[in-house]
Design brief:
The chain has about 300 residues and is an alpha/beta fold. It has 10 helices and 10 strands. Strand 3 (about 95-100), helix 5 and strand 4 (about 120-130) form a beta-alpha-beta unit. The two termini are about 40 Å apart.
Length: about 300
Amino acid sequence: MNVNTQQMRYFMELAKCLNFTRAAANLYVAQPTLSQQIAELEAQLGVSLFVRNSRSVSLTPAGKILYDAYPDIVAKVQQVQQHMLVTAAGFSGSLTIGFLNTFMDFIPMIMRDFKNAFPDISVKPVRASLNELHNSLKNHTIDVAFSLIQDFAMEEIPSFRSREILNNAMCFVLPAEYPVSSDFSFTETLPLITFSDTADSVYYPYVRARLKKLGIQVPEVIFTDSIENIRAYLESGAGFSVLGAKDTFIFSPSTQFIPITNEYLEFGALWDPCSSNPALPLFLDTLDQFLENNPKS
């Protein structure tokens, strides 16, 4: 098989126009030339790509598969080419990775894989709040962020791309001495301890909406700026919080955890597709490979 890019360019134009005369005009070639190139392409592939009759042209099922797949093939070839050029040149640069004030154990593993593949690229991790991560992405002071990617967290950055990595089931965290009931009566007397409404202005409204869905209206809210401070409040018996279940490993036996049915926090990678950092596509390739080897649970 000896398919060339010119044949594919002719095929894509004809598949778009479904008219030999119009496609030939768009390609600035004679119609017989276009017909010959398409016939040669079909012969090399061993399949018919178009159904032709005197009145119309349409794609065969095989032609539809090629038409749908070709843009991804081109993008992958370009990605591989860039990867080879960067590797051959011994590329040395930097990549800044932001992550939330929460527990995400996969980040060090992805960073390790990236450093093994590209030892000359320096990697700088930055811990920040949700708003700080978004602002840093907008200002290009970080290249990729591991953050919440649910709609409520993406409203101010709709043009950014994201890739889901894990779901973190939400749960109540409260002092162990408080009795637990199906009506969550502990929320009537304990204040809610949550992340600062200035540092993470979208998280508290989201938690408040989830509580409202459960018929809960908290009497008091105490804001703080880190999960360590939330732990201190809860372990001293000062209130309850709503967190992801994967964040609760830092808490002592003096706290208890109550799952919230069918409520999840979605975490993933977030980046600006217009970023000019050549290390970013390489990191995203590494991330794809990591996710392929470690399917999310």
